[in-house]
Amino acid sequence: MGKVTGFLEYDRQEQKYQLAGERVRHFREFTLPLDDNDLKKQAGRCMDCGIPFCHGPTGCPVNNQIPDWNDLVWQNDWEEAARNLHSTNNFPEFTGRICPAPCEEACTLNLENQPVAIKTIEQAIADKAWEMGWIKPEIVSFSTGKRVAVIGSGPAGLAAAQQLARAGHEVHVYEREAKPGGLLRYGIPDFKMEKYHIDRRVKQMEAEGVVFHCGVNVGVDKNFASLHNEYDAVLFAGGAEDPRNPNLPGQDLAGVHFAMPYLTQSNKRLGQEDVTGEPILAAGKHVVVIGGGDTASDCVGTAFRQGALSVTQLDIRPKPPEREDKLTVWPYWPTKMRTSSSQAEGAEREFQAATLGIEGKKGKVVGVQCARVDEKRQPIAGSEFILKADLVFLAIGFAGSVKEGLLDQSGVALDRRGNVVASDQDYKTTSEKVFVAGDMRRGQSLVVWAIREGRQAARAIDEYLTGSSNLPR
Ligand code: FAD
C-alpha cells in the first residue's frame, strides 16, 4: 500500500461545488475538481485495511477494487488505475458523478467521519482516462453467431449490451425514446451529469458493434412476439417508471404534475429535442415538491434554474440529524449520501409533513394542505397548515414498471411490487429465453445497481447461449 500513514497526515478533501447563487444560473455540472496533487494525497489516505469493506457487497455493488486503484493513483499510475476501474465498472464517469457512494459509508475511516474521498477519486480517474484517450472501443475479432435484443438503454441495458458485444454476440438495443440513456438522459438533470458522457459511451459501443434502434417502443411500435422470434435471447431493461400515485383530493387541478414529465421535458428542452404535451415550467411560480428522494431534489434544482419564485419541499420523514461537520445528512440512506445539493440552493423544507390535499381556484392549484405527523406518520390534529403554490410536483416514488405494451404482451410473471420476477443468480424471467435486469427487476434503485445487474445478466445470457462465460461476475 502506497502511503501507510497517509490517513494520519492528510485531512479528507472532496471536490468543491460552485456557490449556490452561481450554479443556479445554469444547468451545467458545477463541481470543481481537485488537482492531481490533492487527488494523490486523498488516494494516499486509503489504509491497508485487512478487510476492505468498501468493495464488499455492502460497499460497492459492482465490486470496484477501490484500495487497488487508490494505491495506483498514489503511485501516479493513472492509466493502470483506469484499467483496473474499468475491469469492474463499464461507466465509472457516471457513478463517479451520481452514485451516493455507499463505499464511503463502508470505509473504515468513516468511523472517524472522515472516509476516503472515493467518489471524487473515481470521477477523476474516469475523466482523466477520457482526457488522455485511454478509453477506446474494445472490438472483439470473433463472433458467436448469436443475436441478443436488449430492450431499454438505461445504465442496465447499456452495461449488458457492452458486455454481450465484448463476448462476441450480435447485440441490438431497442429504446422507445429518441436517444439512448434511460433516466441518465431523461430523468437526471445536466447539473448532476451532462449528457455528453452518455453520447461518447454510445459511440464507443457502436464502434464495438452494438446497434441502437431508438424511437422503437417494443410492445407498441414492434410486436414482442416477432422480436422474440428474431433473437436467441432477449434482455428486458425497461426501468421502473410507473409513478406511485398518492390520489390526493384536488390532484387533477391544473398545475399539479408527476415529477417525471417535468424532468423529462426539462431534459429534452436542454437537449434540443421536441417537447410534447403542455409545457411545464417553474419560472415566476411558487413551487411545492412533495417527496424526499432523488427525484424530488432534482425537481427542486430544476425549478430554481428555471427561475421559480420559491421552492418548498415536503418530506413526511423527520428532519435528519446534523453531522459533526455540520453537513446535513441527506437523504437517510446511505446516511452520508452526497449527491443531493439542490436543497442548499434555497429550498424551504418542511419535515414530518403530510399532504392532505391540493387547493384550487377556477380549476388551478393555489395551495397545498399539509399537517405535521407523529412517529407513526399520522397527521396530528390541529397542526394543519397551507402552503401557497402555483405548481406542485408529486415525487413520492415509483410502483414498478409500466405494464401496458411490453410486459402485458410478453406475459412474464410480476411480483407484488410490480417488478419482473427473476433471481439475481440467473436473471431469467418466467418466459423462455427472456432475461431481466436493473430497475425492472429490483424496482427503482441506483445507477450502480443497474450497472451491476446489466453486467451480471450479460454473463447469465452468455452462459445460456454458449454453455459457459468468460465475462466477469
Ligand atoms: P432506466 O434508466 O429507467 O432505463 C430504462 C429505459 O428503457 C428507458 O430509456 C425507457 O425509455 C426504456 N424502455 C422501457 N420500456 C421500453 C420498451 N417497451 N421499448 C423500448 N424501450 C423501453 N440513481 C443514482 O444512483 N443516483 C442518482 O442521483 C439518481 N437520481 C435519480 C433521479 C431521478 C429523477 C430518478 C427517477 C432516478 C434517479 N436515480 C439515481 C435512479 C437511477 O436513475 C435508476 O436506478 C437507473 O437509471 C435504472 O437503470 P435502468 O437501466 O434499470 O432503467
Automatic annotation (TrEMBL):
Pathway note: Amino-acid biosynthesis
Domain called Dihydroprymidine dehydrogenase: residue spans: 24-133
Start and end residues of each FAD/NAD(P)-binding domain: 147-454
Keyword Oxidoreductase in record: yes
Entry coiled-coil feature ranges: none
Entry keyword annotation includes Plastid: no
InterPro entries: DPD_II (IPR028261), FAD/NAD-bd_sf (IPR036188), FAD/NAD-binding_dom (IPR023753), Glut_synth_ssu1 (IPR006005), Glutamate_Synthase (IPR051394), Helical_ferredxn (IPR009051)
Organism superkingdom: Bacteria
Keywords: Amino-acid biosynthesis, Glutamate biosynthesis, Oxidoreductase
Record-linked Pfam families: Fer4_20, Pyr_redox_2
NCBIfam families: GOGAT_sm_gam
Annotated protein name in UniProt: Glutamate synthase subunit beta
